[in-house]
Design brief:
heterodimer, A: alpha/beta, Rossmann fold, eight-stranded mixed sheet, about 35% helix, globular, B: alpha+beta, Nonspecific Lipid-transfer Protein, Chain A
């Protein structure tokens, strides 16, 4: 069996530097741009990209961020420390959308992706059809020392997989759980930690929430109840600061719903997507 | 919590020793006021003897609060108490000493502590 997903590379400039990015897509219709979590890559969306119930109505596209998956870091990476920032992340997403000719896409992201869609809604409302944040909150405090994720005495792949393993729901199918963790184990050195620079520090979006107008850019938030990083109450607190934002708490799901158990997430997601068709 | 049975359960757990293949250490494990010495050799849990009250010697200490650890041990555990990093976020699971040992073998520690959970009859 050959899946309907196609993968290609694009070349584009980000912050004045040449990049080569990998992206995958499936389906036709309303453009739906999908953002992976910190330290992982677009394979997290394999369930959705193989779901004819979605791809029959949406052009679904996911890209690996620079430094992640099959996307290379820019030339000169060996001389710098990778750190994701709000401006870099939003600029990258909008550049990819333009490069692929996505006309007013719906943008759906998880974790860091669920965070950055709030910035997109605040800064680029008229260029978007709406946003969907999975495991989304405007800010989260660090609860462990992330320097261990990039340390010469600790295997990076094993610690990145191990530290997030409990964020997968105990109800997730074993194969999906371990595939989700494998993606983490394959991350480049220091990349997960560099993403967390945005997630646990620089990217505090609480001051921007009041600028989001859900009449111009609808905001949906879906959070699994087994996520102890972005807890349901974290999502609910963020939504309370965005008039018109819609929240669902997904029972039995963790921090990686689209990857750890797409079948369990699907009943929550399809009615949300239907609002954009 | 049957800690005396833990070495046998760990020995029977598929793949657990592989996650600790280079873990050789004495780990002080405490829950509330009770404490044990986990003696580990290359990922094999050798013994779980009560820690001496006076001058215990260890490479790493992991300390759990009694109330939250009891919730962790429930089968199934409630959301948020299902993983020791969830307890870390709650502030009731502390890792002290040579933290690198814990981080380098985090799958092993998560796996072995989850074996303390008694399956529902």
């Amino acid at each position: 069996m050959i899946e309907a997903i196609t993968g290609r590379y694009m070349r584009l400039e980000l912050e004045g530097r040449a990049h080569r990015l990998y992206f995958e897509e499936a389906g036709q219709g309303v453009p739906l741009l999908l953002l992976h979590t910190a330290g992982s890559d677009g394979r997290q969306w394999r369930g959705l990209l193989n779901d004819a119930g979605v791809t029959s109505r949406f052009r679904c596209v996911t890209f690996d961020m620079p430094w992640h998956g099959k996307s290379s870091p820019p030339e000169g990476w060996e001389r710098e420390t990778y750190q994701l920032t709000t401006a870099r992340y939003t600029g990258m997403i909008m550049a990819v959308a333009r490069a692929l000719g996505l006309d007013r896409p719906v943008v759906m992201g998880c974790s860091i992706g669920g965070r950055i869609v709030l910035d997109l809604a605040a800064e680029h409302a008229d260029e978007l059809r709406g946003v969907i944040g999975l495991q989304s909150a405007a800010f989260l405090s660090p609860y462990y020392d992330t320097s261990w994720l990039h340390h010469p005495h600790v295997h990076g792949g094993e610690v990145c997989g191990g530290i997030v393993s409990g964020l997968v729901s105990p109800h997730a199918p074993e194969a999906s759980r371990w595939e989700t963790l494998w993606h983490y184990m394959q991350g480049g050195p220091g990349v997960f930690r560099g993403d967390l620079h945005f997630y646990k520090g620089e990217g505090d979006l609480r001051p921007k929430l009041a600028r989001i107008d859900t009449k111009r850019c609808p905001v949906h938030m879906l959070t699994g109840n087994y996520d102890y990083s972005c807890k349901p109450e974290d999502t609910e607190a963020t939504a309370a600061a965005i008039p018109g934002a819609k929240v669902q708490i997904m029972k039995g799901l963790g921090h990686f719903p689209m990857s750890e158990d797409y079948a369990a997430m699907r009943p929550y997601l399809l009615p949300v997507l239907a609002e954009f068709t | 919590m049957n800690i005396a049975a833990l070495p046998a359960r760990a020995a029977a757990a598929p793949g657990l020793a592989r996650w600790g293949r280079d873990l050789t250490a004495d780990v002080l494990f405490s829950v509330g006021d009770a404490a044990w010495n986990l003696s580990i050799h290359k990922g094999v849990l050798i013994s779980t003897n009560p820690a001496p009250a006076l001058m215990p010697s260890y490479d790493l200490a992991i300390r759990a609060g009694a109330e939250d650890f009891a919730r962790f041990l429930q089968d199934p555990p409630p959301p948020g108490w299902h993983d020791i990093m969830g307890l870390v976020r709650l502030g009731t699971f502390k890792v002290e000493g040579n933290v690198a040992l814990f981080m380098a073998h985090v799958f092993w520690f998560k796996g072995v502590l989850a074996l303390l959970r008694e399956p529902r009859a």
